[in-house]
Amino acid sequence: MAPKILVILLLVAASPAALAAFDVIQMLADKPRYATFSKLLQQTKVAGEANQLRAATLLVVPDKLVKSLTSLPDDKLGPAVANHVLLSYFDPIKLDEMKTRTAILPTLLSNTDKKLGVLNYSRADDGQMYFGAPGASCVAKLVKVVAARPYSVSIMEVSEPILPAGFMTSTAAAPGRRGKGGKGKIKPSAAGLEDSKMVVRKPGEGVSAKVSSKDTGSESAAPSPKPY
């Protein structure tokens, strides 16, 4: 009887549902840089909804840049946080391997609002990756991988909250301007590398993702998004 029970337990543990299970709050627990964003995930119950997904990508903002989110009224806070959860697994390598340089990616908010529940993704000529919400400029830079479990869940830092035009407040980044943050190349953090076993490619082998041109000091324009 014991061997049969052991086999059943192993089969359950190896099932797709078990392998896909994750807890975004637990993954952020040892990362105080995102403590406020983690609290917002719990406060709005977005964390629980994200944990029910088979695959997800969470775009987080460090505490020093989260004010435009925390200043939102309750009726806008939940949708805004939900729009930082993509419904598929992405990392810089997967984004770089897309056949097109632009895409429209559905988010958790699409469960209740199809129009606002998407993010625009663009990859500029220099490789820098950007996200933007409907009606707003594509200016939130992909900074780095915070943590990842390949093909199940990834957590990546962006340079500013990604808010639809109607959600903008005086504390939000001015539309059309690229926010600060994320200098140099996008790279997985030490924790992200250990967790995700991602391969860091050499320049010219895939994800270069430079934030700006060192020669001119200017940034490449991000192309207009297309449906993914």
TrEMBL record:
Region described as Disordered: 171-228
Basic residues bias spans: 177-186
Keyword Signal: yes
Signal peptide segment: 1-20
SUPFAM superfamilies noted in UniProt: FAS1 domain (SSF82153)
Superkingdom, taxonomy of origin: Eukaryota
Composition skew (Basic and acidic residues), residue ranges: 194-204
InterPro entries named among the record's database cross-references: FAS1_dom_sf, Plant_FLA
GO CC field: plasma membrane
Keywords annotated in UniProt: Signal
Protein name: FAS1 domain-containing protein
Species of provenance: Miscanthus lutarioriparius
